[in-house]
Write a structure and sequence with these properties.
two-stranded antiparallel sheet, Cyclophilin, alpha+beta
């Protein structure tokens, strides 16, 4: 994985330096429009992160046994469905508003695994403070037994609160079970190789609390996509379960 403003290790990939940008309500943009730092919003978010960090996560032990693998995901979602993934963790609960328009293949795989209970007991074991958190990798295995080639919108921007499947190997968009949530604001400088599946619609403070357990931010204040050092959390954080709500 190549990050634009710093180098990090993310999963099994190496980040590099390059450039891309965007602004506005959409998650896609041309490279000629670069987002600027909202200092007031950044300050408010820093206060929110500090408040979230003050709350304690439950003491848990990582799952010891990898969940059962599958040959391929069944088709479990329908076009036009409104889906919300309610993620219960040992640090609290957050909701993901899943977006089938971005990457229907990756969303279907994520929903399939969630409804099979695949994520239950897996952890958020890697994070970078104020940057992103990563979870969903089974212990003793590299993934769910398969990978899918998720779609990626052109010129996609990984903005604050965005949830995407981590690029595993092969073509861009290839994904297994590992996903990440962007904490950096206003965006995270990743090249477009990770299939986006949705946005945090509730409980972003829980994700920020998890990121607080990662290594310190290398670029404090006014982060415009620079990334901190990715590493193991100070304590285990488990995904206790993911429930899919359909509207």
């Amino acid at each position: 994985m190549r990050a634009l403003c710093a180098s990090i290790v993310f999963g099994m990939l190496t980040a590099g330096a390059f450039g891309c940008g965007g602004s506005g309500d959409s998650s896609t943009t041309s490279q000629s429009t670069i987002p600027t730092v909202d200092t007031v919003a950044t300050k408010r978010r820093s206060i929110a992160i500090a408040a979230a960090a003050a709350e304690k996560c439950k003491d848990v032990k990582p799952a010891k046994i990898a969940p059962a693998g599958y040959a391929a995901p069944a088709q479990v979602v329908e076009k036009g469905e409104k889906l919300t993934a309610v993620v219960k963790t040992s640090c609290g609960i957050f909701d993901i508003a899943l977006n089938l328009k971005w990457s229907p293949t990756a969303v279907n795989s994520f929903v399939f695994l969630a409804e099979k209970g695949f994520y239950d007991g897996l952890g958020f074991e890697r994070a970078a403070f104020d940057t992103y958190v990563e979870g969903g990798k089974p212990r003793g295995a590299s993934g769910p037994g398969y990978s899918v080639e998720g779609e990626i919108p052109e010129n996609f921007i990984y903005r604050h609160g965005l949830v995407a499947m981590s690029h595993s190997k092969g073509p861009f968009g290839q994904a297994g079970s590992v996903f990440f949530v962007v904490v950096a604001s206003p965006w995270l400088d990743f090249t477009t190789e990770h299939a986006p599946i949705g946005r945090i619609s509730k409980g972003i403070e829980v994700v920020e609390r998890i990121s607080e357990l990662g290594p310190p931010d290398e670029y404090p204040g006014g982060n415009i996509g620079s990334v901190g050092e990715i590493g193991k959390l100070k304590q285990p954080v488990l995904i206790e379960g993911i429930t899919i709500e359909r509207a």
